[in-house]
Amino acid sequence: MTRKAPGRSDRAVTVIKLFQMFPDEATSRKWLENNRWPNGERHCPHCGSLKTSTVLNERPMPYHCGECRQYFSVKTGTVMQSSKVALQKWVIAMYLMSRSLKGVSSMQFYRDLGLTQKTAWLLAQKVRQGWIDGGGNLAGKVEVDETYIGGKERNKHGDERLKGGRGAVEKAAVIGAKERNGKVRASVIAKTKTASLDGFVRENVEPGATVFTDEHSGYRHFFASFTHRSVRHGVGEYVNGMAHTNGIESFWAMLKRGYKGTYHKMSAKHLSRYVVEFAGRHNFRDLDTLAQMTMLAKGLDGKRLRYNDLVADHG
């Protein structure tokens, strides 16, 4: 069966079908459990033991571990832990997040899920934690480029202003790499200096790859492990034979459309989660809606995100 790409009218899961599949809390919980514990192999998130049992009245939780004697649920050890949001609403949030190319704002969660704005914002940030990079470094022909996201310097408090590097200093720098016709990796960086660019490329690109960049001086000196080709954007050159960065620039365009059209603001403090969201959605764009939701659900395992940590001032 041919998989559907996001945005097509023949998407595999319509809103009507979604509510047929997940009409209540029980079906939502069962789906989440099947994703976390496939083939019925339920294990304790505290100690990993398979020696678990069902608690008849589900109090304090539905399952009990015979090894460490602790109780647990499908939420334990995930970003859902301690959340009072219904599991059905978590599933709907994953659906909304996976099917929208430009992202979903917390205001949409607030309106569609009947949550407070604070809870909706926290839920959106937690669901973003589920996006994963798809595994394996980028190889073959890889485009590398950086972009800048954020507001005007004069609109920021002094401690929010970013200094140094190429481009507008009032914006946060994001570096990205994209295989030709393939996966994307992207990350927020403090400065667009050689050390930052070098670390990102070496961490995400296989040695021996052909790397295409623009003429930024930060790319000139560290490609001993790669074949390096560049184009000179500064003099109006955007394609030089096979050398261009059009693919990663298309990804930047989608990210910025989400910034302007959906979120309107991505603070530097939380920008990394938005970047990971857009990269993850790109990397799994050829999967149908349910498969993307499944990837999101699996990505929630082993992660925690608390409201106090999100709003804390880390200086």
TrEMBL record:
This is IS1595 family transposase. Residues 137-283 form the ISXO2-like transposase domain. It comes from Allosphingosinicella flava. InterPro entries: IS1016-like_transposase (IPR053164), Tnp_ISXO2-like (IPR024445), Transposase_Zn_ribbon (IPR024442). PANTHER family: DDE_TNP_IS1595 DOMAIN-CONTAINING PROTEIN, SI:DKEY-17M8.2. Pfam families: DDE_Tnp_IS1595, Zn_ribbon_IS1595.
